[in-house]
Design brief:
The chain is mainly β and about 90 residues long. The protein is built from one helix and eight strands. Strand 6 and strand 7 form a beta hairpin. Bound molecules: zinc ion.
Length: about 90
């Protein structure tokens, strides 16, 4: 399966949160930091090492919580997305 680019926006106010390269189809449950394309500030977090160094993913406009940092399978940094907190669109 190929990959495609998704834009994730705040589900409350519509503010742009991240652009993401998603592999496969299906629901967006985890957002891997090494697949984040924009903004650069978030993409750079992939080299933070541990989830304790990663801030909670929130909307900068309305403070809506979008995702919580996790270490998937003990090592790969990701955000576990909060169901219903965001909207996604292909571009
Ligand atoms: Zn918002």
């Amino acid at each position: 399966m190929g990959s495609r680019q998704l834009d994730i926006d705040c589900g409350k106010c519509g503010t742009f949160i991240v652009r993401y390269r998603k592999e496969g189809s299906g629901q967006l449950i985890r957002l891997y930091l090494d697949k984040i394309l924009q903004p650069k500030s978030l993409a750079a977090l992939k080299s933070s090492g541990r989830k304790s160094n990663i801030p909670v993913l929130i909307c900068t406009e309305c403070d809506n919580h979008i995702g919580h940092p996790i270490e998937h399978e003990g090592k790969r940094l990701a955000y576990r997305m909060i169901k219903g907190s965001f909207k996604k669109s292909s571009n």
